[in-house]
Structures are given as structure tokens and as C-alpha cells.
Write a structure and sequence with these properties.
The complex is a heterodimer.
Chain A lengths: L6 H8 L3 E5 H12 L1 E6 L6 H10 L6 E4 L3 H13 L3 E6 L1 H16 L4 E9 L5 E5 L4 H6 L9 E2 L4 H18 L2 E7 H4 L2 E5 L64 H16 L8 E4 L6 E5 L4 H13 L4 E6 L1 E3 L3 H10 L2 E6 L6 H8 L4 E6 L8 H8 L3
Parallel strand pairs in A: 2-3, 2-4, 4-5, 5-8, 7-8, 11-12, 11-14, 14-15
Antiparallel strand pairs in A: 1-9, 5-6, 7-13, 10-12
Helix pairs in contact in A: 2-3, 2-7, 4-5, 10-13, 11-12
Chain B lengths: L1 E9 L4 H13 L5 E6 L9 E9 L13 E4 L2 H7 L8 E4 L14 E2 L2 H7 L6 H13 L4 H11 L5 H21 L1
Parallel strand pairs in B: 1-4, 4-5, 5-6
Antiparallel strand pairs in B: 1-3, 2-3
Helix pairs in contact in B: 1-4, 1-5, 3-4, 4-5, 4-6, 5-6
Classes of the chains: A alpha/beta, B alpha/beta.
């Protein structure tokens, strides 16, 4: 059954324009606003409320909620639904994200648009259920094997859980690739005011379908109708012939696993379709950087105590600013390098033992001092814990 | 202005909903910023549960409370567990029937929320009585905003009951202020 996004019905189901809701629920709202019509999921704290919200709301907008047997099944169902023409998503937390890694790569290799919300909790393994962490940031980038370009958002507010989930769908459709929303237990389980954007203010990017003569259609090559490295999408059932495999494939989609050139051509296309746009994909917030001598580089929940610590510092006359990564991957290499030339020190607070600090160091490339400010155990940094870094500890 | 509120009780009493209603009143029905977080896990079902709200007229950075300006307790266990950081400036509200041992050398507002709820025919609205009382005692949020938030947050068939609970609670809160 073909799903048609019905803006009026969506508004009716989502309810009032201004609400006070959980971060997890805001991911549901963002997905439904984007036109998500399929959710395949398996509950896991602190992401369970995403599945719960989708189970309640998605059928009411005439979408499909499918309770799967586990996270491997969830992402597999999401990929299948995408090939059936749906905008599809799943939501999980660390242990489930680990289980999804194989099919995460399959979605990359088969150029399947889909959205994975990861409400991060502590690990390794089952860790601390419900408690927030940012320990999967590198997993989003490197967790599946082989070469690929990750796209991953990091919301710091409940409003951003709506906005970024919606934008994740846009980028998934635009680049035909899985996109991660790397939320965390702190934001997922926080309630805040949200304003549901009006229909006229939404910018939705839709998948480019295959439209040319069926006999001339080539499924895995640059678009045959636009100037793009992203191929036109041959939705199952529309009569366009294709073959979908995780094996290295030729332009027709058939396995072509024995030639170096075939593999290089394919993987360079599916990575460069994203990396070519790296400059366009920069999404950062800059606060008080004009005269800053020290800067926090931060993302997700951690940006909030960092901002509080920055305010404490400013009150004491410390020239501290903040750069917040809204999109963690692709990494804003040039922005970091430019910042490094302008400040003496960059502090990177994270709810892990140091992950994003590594690409920061790489692109600072010796231009300034880089300090990692880690905290683990399921609690956010306190503002005064981060303030101590401003005083040189 | 930045105020931090902690509401606690035993799991099932509706302390999360109480916090949700206050946060929503502040940020949806008034112009404040608000965040609400809660204890989560086994203690949310029986045992001591808590809901914490920050209300501010400025952007809220760090979203967890760093102190407690208002402390509401609806069970002895939660009162004992979560009062560690109350200060002389903390406004303390308890249901004296549920928190019998509340003499900690500080002034305490007493509201018999459960008894009032039982008088209305349903103990389940104890939390809403307490929200009404807190509205009067805190003098932080507008009566109408909190009442609207209550009505917006409960099932439609229980609106009348909850409205009455809120009003009775507000009255009891005013009396508690006079009594102290």
C-alpha cells in the first residue's frame, strides 16, 4: 500500500504547535513530519520511548510500525521498507547499535536511504541502561567495516531532536545513505518546550526516483537524469530492474568482486557523493568566538554544561567561546583548523573517554593546545567541573 | 530568575506527571524556559521516585538541578532519600500524613494532599492536589497557567475531578502559607 504524506493528518496526530515533550518523542515528531511511513524497531532504554511513540502515532498517519525480534531484524526491515519506497527509520541505543552495524554497512553499500536514531547510553556491552553517554560517536563513523562516509547529527536540545531527525531524512534521501541521529540518554529523557514547525517552513528533500526509459536504466551509477553521483532510485515494484547486494557490484548491481578497479570505482563514488559536499554539510553553532582565547568544542548534551561553564568563565573575565557541532560527521575539518589558528587552547568535553577529541587534534594539526575533558558513568559534566578546565585545573 | 524544583514520592503517585504539569505550565502556558527530568528505572515503580524541574527566564544550559529551591515530598522514603541538599532557603512542602517524620529543624509547609484527594473520591489525584498547593506556596507560576496545564495533561473524562483537585489544593496551599 502506497503511503502518501498527509500534512493535515500529521498535524492532527501530532497535536498542538507548542508542546512540552521528551527528546525521544521529539525524534518521533521529526520523523513523522519528514514523511516517515515505516518504523522497524526493538525497544531498548533510553530509546524505548521512540518506539513507543512511533507505535502509537505512525498507524494514525497511515504509516506502519513493525515490532521486530531484535535490532538486526529492525534495521533489515527498515532497509527493505526503503526499497519498497518508504522513508523509514529505527531507533536504538548502544547495544542495539552494535547489532545493527552489519546492516548499517549494507545500507551504505546498497545506497539505501534510512535513518537510525541512537539514544546513546554507557558501554561497553549492556553498560548502564537508561543512563546517558556519548560513547558511540566513533562507532557511527567507523563501526561498520570498510570505507564509507558517515553522516551523523548530535542534538543538544529537545527541539533539535525534531529538527535533526527531519534533516536526517533529508540527507538520507539526498545522498541515498543511512544517516544517524546520535542523541544521548540525557537529551532523550529530558522534557523541554518544542515548537512544531509550520508546513510552509518545512524543507523536505524527496528521493529522486528512476524515470528514464526502463531499458536504458542503470541502477548503480551517477544519476541518469540529474548532475549527481547519487543514482536515481528504482523502487521495487515500479518495473525498473535492479539487483541489490552488499557485494562489490558493477553499475548494473551484479556482483563484480574480483577486480580492483570495479571496487575502487564503486566505493569512491559512494564516499565522494558525500565528501564532495563536505563544505556544504558543515552545521555548527558559534558562541562568543570573536575574541576567544579558549574554546570548547562540543556536541550533544555536553554542549549544555559547557555553555554554562563558558558563562561562568565570561563573568570572571576569561575569554572563552564555544563551537558546537550539530553535525558531527562529516567532521567540519576546515572550521576546526581555522578555530585552532585563532585560539590558544581547545577543550573537548565528552561523555566518553575521548572520541571526537581525536579528529579535533587531527585538524588542529598543532596550531593550538587540545585538552580532552572526559566524563563517564552516566552523568553529564557539572558546569563547575568544566569551569575548572578554564582555570587550567 | 532561575528556580529549581524537586517533587518526590513513591512510584505510582504521579510525581513525574506533577513535574511535567509544572514544566509545561511554565514553558507552554507562560513564557519561561523549563526543563524536566526524572529518576528512571526500578525506583520509578515503587520505592522513591523524583521529578525535577528548572524554570528560568533565560536559556537553560546545564539541564539538571544544582540545588533545590522548592522541595515537595509525598512519601517518607523519598523525603529521607532526596532531602540531602535542602538548605535554610529551600521551601519545603510535605503531606504530613505521608511524611510523618518531617521535623528536621526547618519550617515545613503541610498540605494533607492525600486526605483532600480521598475527600474528592479518588486518591489518584493526590499529585494534582499537591500541584495546586505548590502553585499557591511557591507563588512562582500563574494560577491560570498551571490550571490550564493540568487540564491539558489529564484524560478528558477525568478533567472535572482534576480541576477540583487543583482548586482544593490551591486553597490548602494558601491556608498552609497562612498557618506557617
Amino acid at each position: 500500500m502506497k503511503y502518501t504524506r498527509d500534512p493535515e493528518l500529521i498535524r492532527k496526530v501530532l497535536g498542538k504547535k507548542v508542546q512540552f515533550i521528551l527528546g525521544d518523542m521529539a525524534c518521533v515528531y521529526g520523523g513523522i513530519l519528514a514523511g516517515c511511513s515505516f518504523f522497524g524497531g526493538y525497544p531498548i532504554t533510553p530509546a524505548s520511548e521512540v518506539a513507543e511513540g512511533m507505535a502509537r502515532m505512525l498507524p494514525r498517519v497511515k504509516g506502519t510500525y513493525m515490532q521486530m525480534e531484535d535490532e538486526i531484524g529492525s534495521i533489515a526491515a527498515v532497509i527493505g521498507a526503503a526499497w519498497g519506497g518508504a522513508k523509514s527509520m529505527t531507533a536504538t541505543s548502544g547495544p542495539g547499535f552494535s547489532l545493527m552495524m552489519e546492516n548499517y554497512g549494507y545500507a551504505v553499500m546498497t545506497e539505501t536511504p534510512c535513518v537510525i536514531v541512537n539514544v546513546q547510553r554507557t558501554g561497553p556491552s549492556t553498560g548502564q541502561p537508561t543512563l546517558g553517554a556519548q560513547g558511540d560517536m566513533m562507532q557511527a563513523k567507523w563501526g561498520t567495516h570498510g570505507d564509507f562516509e558517515a553522516i551523523a547529527f548530535a542534538p543538544s536540545t529537545v527541539q533539535e531532536c525534531i529538527d535533526f531527525t527531519l534533516e536526517a531524512f533529508n540527507l538520507a534521501e539526498k545522498y541515498r545513505t543511512p544517516v544517524c541521529v546520535m542523541a544521548d540518554g540525557e537529551i532523550g529523557h529530558l522534557r523541554e518546550r518544542v515548537i512544531i514547525p509550520d508546513e510552509k517552513d518545512l524543507k523536505l528533500i524527496e528521493r529522486a526516483p528512476a524515470t528514464i526509459d526502463k531499458k536504458k536504466f542503470i541502477p548503480f551509477t551517477n544519476s541518469q537524469t540529474r548532475k549527481s553521483k547519487v543514482p536515481d532510485f528504482p523502487t521495487f515494484g515500479t518495473g525498473y530492474r535492479t539487483y541489490v547486494t552488499g557485494l562489490t557490484h558493477n553499475e548494473k548491481g551484479f556482483p563484480a568482486t574480483d577486480k580492483q578497479k570495479d571496487h575502487e570505482k564503486l566505493v569512491k563514488r559512494i564516499t565522494s557523493k558525500i565528501s564532495d559536499d563536505a563544505d556544504k554539510l558543515v552545521m555548527v553553532e558559534e558562541i562568543n568566538l570573536d575574541d576567544a582565547e579558549i574554546a570548547f568544542v562540543t556536541y550533544g548534551a555536553t554542549a549544555r554544561p559547557a555553555e554554562s561553564a563558558m558563562e561562568m568563565g565570561r563573568k570572571k573575565g576569561i575569554k572563552i567561546g564555544l563551537l558546537r557541532l550539530k553535525l558531527a560527521w562529516p567532521f567540519p575539518e576546515k572550521v576546526i583548523h581555522k578555530l585552532a589558528k585563532e585560539v590558544d587552547k581547545i577543550i573537548v568535553p565528552e561523555m566518553n573517554l575521548g572520541q571526537i577529541v581525536h579528529p579535533v587534534r587531527e585538524y588542529v594539526n598543532g596550531e593550538c593546545e587540545v585538552v580532552s575533558a572526559p566524563k563517564i558513568g552516566g552523568e553529564m559534566h557539572l558546569p563547575n567541573e568544566l569551569f575548572k578546565y578554564l582555570e587550567g585545573k | 530568575m532561575k528556580k529549581e524544583i524537586r517533587i518526590c514520592g513513591f512510584g505510582g503517585q504521579g510525581v513525574i506527571l506533577a513535574g511535567f504539569i509544572i514544566g509545561k505550565a511554565a514553558s507552554v502556558f507562560m513564557d519561561y524556559n523549563a526543563v524536566q527530568s526524572q529518576s528512571y528505572g526500578p525506583e520509578a515503580r515503587g520505592g522513591a521516585a523524583r521529578s525535577e524541574i528548572i524554570i528560568s527566564d533565560e536559556k537553560i544550559g546545564y539541564p539538571r538541578p544544582t540545588g533545590v529551591d522548592f522541595f515537595v515530598a509525598m512519601s517518607q522514603e523519598s523525603f529521607d532519600t532526596y532531602r540531602g541538599d535542602v538548605t535554610d532557603d529551600t521551601v519545603i512542602v510535605v503531606d504530613p500524613d505521608l511524611v510523618k517524620k518531617h521535623d528536621i529543624g526547618k519550617s515545613v509547609y503541610k498540605v494533607q494532599a492525600q486526605k483532600i484527594a480521598e475527600g474528592l473520591g479518588n486518591k489518584i489525584v493526590t499529585n494534582i492536589v499537591m500541584v495546586g498547593a505548590a502553585t499557591a506556596i511557591f507563588a512562582l507560576l500563574e494560577y491560570d497557567a498551571v490550571k490550564q496545564s493540568v487540564l491539558d495533561s489529564v484524560p478528558s473524562r477525568f478533567k472535572a475531578l482534576n480541576e477540583k483537585a487543583f482548586e482544593k489544593g490551591f486553597e490548602a496551599g494558601k491556608n498552609a502559607v497562612k498557618g506557617l
